[in-house]
From TrEMBL:
Its main location: mitochondrion. GO terms for biological process: mitochondrial RNA processing; regulation of mitochondrial mRNA stability. This is FAST kinase domain-containing protein 4. Residues 340-353 have a biased composition (Basic and acidic residues). Residues 314-400 form the FAST kinase-like protein subdomain domain. Keywords: Signal, Transit peptide. Pfam families: FAST_1 (PF06743), FAST_2 (PF08368). Residues 231-302 form the FAST kinase leucine-rich domain. It is found in: Mitochondrion matrix. One of its GO terms (cellular component) is mitochondrial matrix. PANTHER family: FAST KINASE DOMAIN-CONTAINING PROTEIN 4 (PTHR21228:SF59), FAST LEU-RICH DOMAIN-CONTAINING (PTHR21228). The gene is Tbrg4. Belongs to the FAST kinase family. Residues 1-24 form the signal peptide.
Length: 464
């Protein structure tokens, strides 16, 4: 009955102390205090609203009080001062109110210059965990991070790398600094941290060779500590970046030894990813090919239209192409002909084509003189798409491409064999996402496509 006489600050402190006193959230004393706080919300100073929001969010409060506190913060966000308050709200409360989070992002952009290293880390982490790719704020965080002269602490390095990877935000100077300063710490990281760092750099398409060498050496030095999934994560990261360690023979011998007998622990998709990665790095053994190309292995993927299954099926086509084109001693099994059809996108029309792709078609049409002299958007049995295919005779004159047999197509078209001296030319278009972020090196995917098509007898004309 006397609770209305309690001042604001002690009242808020009382509410925060109730759990420590053993009073249940739905009990009468708690409800009474919450109701009094609810009535006074408009009169509470902003600082007490912030403390209240932080406490209620941490308690998982599901009553009327927390939504009202958030609403008041949404209305009074211009009163926010100090980096600590903004960072705390972003990290602990922002996920509960998208409107408030937008306001906090604006305030963080205003205060970014004042953030210390830990606050930069916490803001980036809050954005990543909430999947909020606020590019202006990320650019500001990157700029002010690069102005910090001190060496970055390990938690800042790992959390920023995670955040940039989660948000697919590539900032070359930041990634260079993260990789440079992370390298000396690799030996002190846990296996989970090493695997996570490798995957993060791979998702950002950032290859730092000294860091990748350090991760490869860590894997050799800590083989018994790495779980099979962690080792697979490192292997898949190397394949994405098309990275071969300097100790390649020793590293892959270790990988094969660790994988032997452990394949049953891996689900269909992960095992497909692992064998595909070995194919990219030209380290797949016949036993690996046999395992994933056996009908009992891939039968579960047929008819599954989920994105994960479609990705795994495409990788099986690449593995099958490796078995056909790069494994001369391999005797089978292979994927049956009917399984090689229809991997391509049926809707490859001009509306979905990139500007480079549309320009390429127009140039070829003008240069060759007619649409019957080239194919475009060709889906091959190897799992790779060719932007354009041309057949040239011995004098480098184009021939009607549909007149000739085409073993690379899932459906036969022409019946004539290629004339003596004639060659097939595949026009391949490489765009920015197919290169590493550091330069003009193709990622593992593109490198394997290039090898397979050359092995299938194509001359390559590459456009980027």
């Amino acid at each position: 009955s006397q609770i209305s006489q309690v001042w604001n600050a002690p009242l808020v402190q009382l509410l925060r102390s109730l759990p420590a006193l053993g009073l249940a959230q739905g009990g009468r004393p708690t409800r009474s205090v919450e109701q009094e706080v609810l009535w006074r919300l408009r009169r509470l100073p902003l600082r007490q609203l912030v403390h209240l929001a932080e406490f209620l969010a941490g308690q998982g409060h599901d009553g009327l009080l927390l939504p009202e506190v958030l609403r008041k913060l949404e209305l009074r966000w211009t009163e926010l001062e100090g980096t600590r308050t903004v960072v705390t709200l972003m990290a602990k409360v922002g996920h509960l109110s998208p409107t408030l989070m937008e306001r906090l992002e604006d305030k963080a952009l205003e205060l970014a210059e004042q953030f210390d290293l830990d606050e930069l880390r916490r803001v980036a982490l809050a954005l990543a965990l909430q999947q909020r790719r606020c590019v202006p704020l990320l650019r500001a965080l990157s700029y002010h991070l690069l102005q910090k002269p001190a060496e970055l602490p390990l938690p800042v390095l790992t959390d920023l790398l995670f955040a940039y990877s989660k948000l697919s935000f590539q900032q070359p100077q930041v990634l260079h600094r993260l990789s440079l300063e992370l390298q000396p710490h690799v030996g002190t990281l846990s296996p989970a941290q090493v695997s996570r760092c490798a995957r993060s750099f791979a998702s950002l398409r950032w290859l730092s060779r000294p860091l990748a060498e350090a991760i490869a050496q860590y894997s050799l030095d800590n083989t018994q500590k790495l779980s099979i999934t962690q080792l697979c994560g490192i292997l898949m990261s190397f394949a994405r970046l098309n990275f071969q360690p300097s100790s390649s023979e020793e590293f892959f011998s270790m990988v094969h030894e660790q994988l032997q007998g452990q394949e049953q622990q891996l689900d269909t998709h992960l095992l497909t990813d692992v064998v595909w990665s070995l194919c990219v790095l030209q380290q797949a053994r016949p036993s690996h090919l046999r395992q994933v190309l056996a009908p009992e292995f891939w039968a579960c993927l047929q008819g599954d239209t989920s994105p994960r299954a479609q990705s795994s099926w495409l990788k099986l086509l690449h593995i099958n192409a490796t078995a056909r084109l790069e494994a001369p001693g391999y005797q089978g099994p292979f994927l049956p002909p009917e399984a090689l059809r229809g991997h391509g996108d049926k809707d490859k029309d001009k509306e979905k084509a990139s500007p480079l792709q549309r320009g390429l078609r127009e140039v070829l049409l003008g240069a060759l003189g007619g649409p019957d002299l080239f194919r475009h958007s060709v889906s091959t049995v190897y799992g790779w798409d060719i932007d354009a295919e041309v057949v040239l005779d011995s004098d480098n004159k184009p021939l009607p491409v549909r007149d000739f047999t085409a073993p690379h197509l899932p459906h036969a078209e022409g019946t004539k064999p290629l004339p003596p001296g004639a060659r097939r030319v595949a026009v391949l278009r490489w765009e920015f996402p197919q290169f590493s972020s550091r330069g003009r090196e193709l990622l593992g995917w593109g490198s394997m496509a290039r090898r397979h098509l050359q092995a299938a007898g194509f001359l390559l004309a590459e456009v980027s």
